[in-house]
Design brief:
Two copies of one chain form a homodimer. The first copy, chain A, has 496 residues and is of the alpha+beta class. Helices cover 37% and strands 21% of the residues of chain A.
Chain lengths: 496, 496
């Protein structure tokens, strides 16, 4: 069953640009391109031909038109590019691996924004095993970062679906999450220092490998998650960890989300920091996987909720297995779970993760759907889902909920598929706004977030304006204006 | 042996205030006090009598003179106080438990700054065991926070010498460190959300209990560590952890700092996140403890370096002990350590920690000294100490180095005591600046920080101006100006 392709939106430039201003921009743009060619060499300033690798996001939902694609090869060149842009008043859209999910890394369709690709900055600058740190350039692909750590016998734990093509700079610019957050934190918690080029084209050399540094304001965390609107990350010093000696995977069946939360508490108290993953999947999520990928063997019979647990230990593989088994036994005895399967091999473990990771793909196969990336306090999850499920089912009889995600972080991908057999595209076009309103109102009632790990980009600007407090927005606007007074860095993203 | 009292410095207001401006301030100040009395009640606006509990820091190194001490009882009252200050153009020095080490929480001696005490905001607002969070007000004493967590069967791991009187708001405003950072992070990493009153007297309700929230700029981490110069923290949502089932302590003897670093790597790879503490002490540190507190039993014979290790596990007390013993055995076999003692009881464990924690007190007994709170990458520590020790000994023959601290975080309290029998006060007065220059130059060469966990306050303004990059300072000044354009929040601290 093939799904219709999603509609691709054109990213519009800010409205109200006058004719004179447009003329001025054209002149500035031509001068900038000439200058960039001198700076970077003509072959690193792409203007003609098919630029869709940079202009179209990978979900194919946003397409823009860049003035040019500039590919500097060093931090110094990035600084020179930004100096030139500041001088000519041309705005800049930084881009890493172009795998973002919220339309934050493609230019608008004005043809007046410079697409700044960081892909040539991909060196491993240093690795320091005794300090458990490595320094990498922004364009390095996440998988290459993981591999470099692994080659040194260490672990860089950030892991997410796009790791084969996303860049570490993009991960930091969007504060990426993934499957190991429960133990190791988001991208933010994995970064000790940054090198950033400011809107004025100055370089902030903040590549500290320090775990403690209280010398002034936390610039690092301000740039992390700012989606290229405050500065351009060119390199980062990352935290590394010893590789665990053993990593065990299990699946368990729960009758309710409340039981999943109980299992989480039990696992946290018994396994401590050894609990590295805790993912939940509702019946329909796994049924979709079964439908579209029947070759994947289900580990357990269908249950209202299936939990995937991962337990990693630095040492003592046998002791770790006993502890993991004892946890599952205790959960069975307490009737927190009704069934469990512990992977007996790396292959079985991989299959369990494969089931979990196939849910988004199965959803794509099933057809267009409304995606959410929400978080609420873990304790509020059962109530949130019960209320929101009921509200959606009342408003849209037959609606199908694909609810799965990182329960340990309070982060659900609470996705919505139209009724079986309905026209998915039409359902989406007609009802997306109302579905979002129901879901995000409930999230807000629970003190949650409408963007847990994907960022704001273009997609969630409306929610930012509607749902963040005026005080928070005021503070953010003041910071944006202070660091980028010309408004040239990824304008129209995150806040407007 | 009783040490001479440290000199108390007067905190000077900014120079160049004109006579007319001073007159204006006097009028504004009188009007403000009248207004504050109406807002808070006269008994919460202290003007007369001995205000040294607020005006003199606990090290007795900085004394100021406050316009008044205001003690609001709620966030709404804090907001009203700041609104009034903004209207009257009067500056504000926020204060928690007044235990800071860098003179960041006492007013200058102009008599024109309002001392804003947060001590009446001390409610535990909520505790959510399933979400592993608690929400507390800024004035709550750290020990009370720890106790509230413990009463719920959970752990709040921030722990430091002043915990009996410091407040959680102050801990967050200064991003406090302490002894558990290796496992749990600094105060920053233990905080999920904040409530902050801005310079304009608006309330930012950012008390999120979320582990993932990518909706705009990271305001939380901007306020954390800003030492009251960007906003006033009135409440925080904190991370909690399951209490470990077992916590084991050991001491070990190393021949060199390089061996201490090797032991750290070995312990991290074998114990993973179970390694919760890793402190080092040089011979002279423990000799000072022996001299001034002879009743404290030393756990091991003197060695060039003594390491204190702590290992905590969520479960399986017997297995944990075996693993800890196996680590020490492996280290003995590899000749990374030459001796070890594993605490056999809680009392022995407490004695080991007591030895470590008595070093600063033994230093006070020994006499005035130059304190440093530095961090460098862990891998650079042996080289840093070797070079700096040699440089100091060459410049000041007979100088005594009290070197101890949190090696696992790269954070040393690299303190300097004058030669045996010298006049400590005179030595300090004559040589402190030169000693600082030698130490901080070496720190800078190693990519380190001159303030690891204590903050900048008044004490390290000079180092900020001299040693932070102009780009970093420019960014910080722009942020300060954006959030506090009148310059009323703790002016003259952190950056000038």
């Amino acid at each position: 069953m093939s799904a219709p392709r999603p509609t691709t939106y054109v990213v519009r430039p800010p409205r109200g640009t006058s004719k004179v201003a447009k003329q001025h921009l054209l002149v500035a743009a031509a001068a900038l391109i000439t200058e960039l060619r001198q700076l970077l060499g003509a072959e690193q300033v792409l203007v003609d031909g098919d630029l869709s690798a940079w202009e179209l996001d990978w979900r194919k939902r946003w397409r823009g038109k860049a003035l040019a694609v500039a590919r500097p090869g060093s931090t110094a060149e990035v600084a020179q590019v930004l100096q030139a842009c500041a001088r000519h008043g041309v705005s800049v859209v930084p881009q890493g691996g172009n795998t973002g999910l919220v339309g934050g890394g493609v230019p608008d369709d004005s043809g007046q924004q410079l697409l700044l690709s960081l892909s040539r900055l991909k060196r491993l600058r240093a690795i320091d095993p005794a300090n458990l740190t490595m320094t990498v350039e922004a364009g390095m692909v996440l998988q290459a970062v993981q591999q470099a750590a692994s080659d040194a016998g260490l672990l860089f734990p950030l892991s997410l679906a796009a790791e084969g093509s996303c860049s570490i700079g993009g991960n930091l610019a969007t504060n990426a999450g993934g499957t190991q957050v429960l133990r190791y934190g988001n991208a933010r918690e994995l970064c000790l220092g940054l090198e950033v080029v400011t809107a004025q084209g100055e370089v902030w050399h903040g590549l500290s490998g320090l775990r403690k540094d209280n010398t002034g304001y936390d610039l690092r965390d301000l740039f992390i998650g700012s989606e290229g609107t405050l500065g351009v990350i060119t390199a980062a010093t990352l935290k590394l960890f010893p590789q665990p000696a053993v990593s065990l995977t299990a699946m368990a069946s729960c009758a309710s989300l409340a039981d999943c939360v109980r299992l989480l508490s039990l696992a946290q108290s018994r396994l401590g920091a050894g609990l590295t993953g805790f993912e939940v999947m509702n019946t329909f999520s796994l049924a979709l996987v079964q439908r579209h990928f029947p070759q994947l063997q289900q580990a357990l019979p269908p249950a209202p909720w299936t939990v995937l647990l991962e337990f990693a230990e630095a040492d003592d593989a046998q002791g770790a297995r006993s502890r993991f088994e004892a946890l599952l036994e205790a959960a069975l005895n307490n009737e927190v779970i009704s069934d469990a399967a512990l992977a007996e091999s790396l292959a079985q473990s991989a299959t369990m993760w494969h089931l979990r990771e196939s849910i988004p793909l199965a959803q794509s196969e099933e057809g267009l759907n409304v995606k959410h990336d929400i978080s609420v306090p873990v304790s509020a999850i059962p109530d949130f889902c019960e209320r929101t499920d009921a509200a959606l089912r009342a408003a849209f009889p037959g609606i199908r909920l694909v609810n799965f995600g990182h329960l340990g972080d309070g982060n659900l991908h609470y996705n919505v598929q139209g009724p079986e057999g309905s026209d998915a595209g039409r359902f989406l076009a007609e009802h997306e706004a109302q579905i979002n309103a129901i879901v995000y109102d409930a999230v807000q009632d629970c003190g949650g977030s409408f963007s847990a790990e994907h960022g704001v980009g273009t997609l969630k600007l409306h929610e930012m304006a509607q749902r963040k407090s005026p005080v928070a927005l005021g503070l953010m606007r003041a910071i944006k204006l202070a660091l980028d007074p010309q408004g040239l860095l990824n304008p129209g993203r995150v806040i407007v």
